[in-house]
Specification:
The protein is mainly alpha-helical. It has helices spanning about 35, 45-65. The protein has a domain at about 40-65. The protein has two helices and no strands. The chain is elongated, with a radius of gyration of 22 Å. The chain starts with about 30 loop residues before the first helix and ends with a helix.
């Protein structure tokens, strides 16, 4: 069986609320507000929607050409 660090195991508890007073919870803080509310405007998802199908098509063309 794998060695699993007990700090990184899901506990089934509700997630911590957004942190508002970091100083009082310095030992075990919750997530910051920007980490929860920030929009992913410049993410890689929109680019991958175009690159992956093109790469698959090119791969199929190369595979079919080299197969014969």
């Amino acid at each position: 069986m794998e060695n699993i660090d007990p700090k990184h195991v899901e506990s089934g508890e509700a997630p911590k609320p957004i942190e508002k007073d970091y100083e009082s919870h310095k030992e075990d803080p919750g997530p910051a507000k920007p980490a929860v509310t920030e929009r992913d405007e410049n993410g890689a998802g929109s680019v991958l929607k175009w690159i992956l199908p093109i790469a698959v098509i090119i791969g199929l063309i190369v595979w079919l050409a080299l197969r014969k």
